[in-house]
Amino acid sequence: MSFFSLPHFPPADSSAEHRRRDYQIAGFTFVTTTICLTMDGFAPQFMQYVLALFGWLFLFAWLRGECKYVRTQVAVAVTFALIGEYFASVYMKGYIYRFGNVPAYVPAGHGLVYLTAVALGRSGLFQRYARRIAVFVVAACGSWAAWGLSGNTRLDVIGAVLFIVFLGYLFKGRSPMVYLGAFFITSWLEIVGTSAGTWAWAEIDPASHLPQGNPPSGVAAWYCLVDAVAIAGAGPVLQLFSKTALVLQRQRA
């Protein structure tokens, strides 16, 4: 089966509604991510709590316009990503934030990033030009991975491995449109965050002992994992809450 006939992509040049809200969410997250991560690169640590306050306010405001299923996906994504942050950064030291902690704004930030990936993936632009965008993403990420292996910069073997993992998500995963959206927002925030000095990736990955870039070229694959867990976990979580509510309702009756 050729790339252009993959059934889990929207049909070529399919018509889709252009909802202004989807582009507003994406534009908002790209701008605020740039401001937040740049500011955290030089501001005192207490500013992280100020950024967290605004992050949660904005996240809840955007979620008010989403359905229950998407809100649950965001909640699962935030929970899983936060656990991953403490394991990968604080415990494993795969990357380290400027103050050696997990900044207070990170959970809300993960929620906004996931919501942005969803908004981009369902947008009329991505639905209509899915295959063309996928070609661009594969070419861009592949070129980035090749550059990391070229020796012209810090050696990035982990990036190449993650690029292959990302391709697996994109071509075999349940929600390729979300993964395409994740590539754009996560690559951007990683470039901004590492350039500002907000965090830095270890030269040697502590788990595999392979060299990695700052950031690794295929870093979007990690965020695809978060997306995959959110997509897979939202249904069971909603069912659990529904059953719990039903049991409580019967007990009150």
UniProtKB/TrEMBL annotation:
<feature type="transmembrane region" description="Helical">
    <location>
        <begin position="46"/>
        <end position="63"/>
    </location>
</feature>
<feature type="transmembrane region" description="Helical">
    <location>
        <begin position="133"/>
        <end position="149"/>
    </location>
</feature>
<protein>
    <recommendedName>
        <fullName>Integral membrane protein</fullName>
    </recommendedName>
</protein>
<feature type="transmembrane region" description="Helical">
    <location>
        <begin position="102"/>
        <end position="121"/>
    </location>
</feature>
<keyword id="KW-1133">Transmembrane helix</keyword>
<feature type="transmembrane region" description="Helical">
    <location>
        <begin position="75"/>
        <end position="96"/>
    </location>
</feature>
<keyword id="KW-0812">Transmembrane</keyword>
<feature type="transmembrane region" description="Helical">
    <location>
        <begin position="220"/>
        <end position="241"/>
    </location>
</feature>
<keyword id="KW-0472">Membrane</keyword>
<feature type="transmembrane region" description="Helical">
    <location>
        <begin position="178"/>
        <end position="200"/>
    </location>
</feature>
<feature type="transmembrane region" description="Helical">
    <location>
        <begin position="155"/>
        <end position="171"/>
    </location>
</feature>
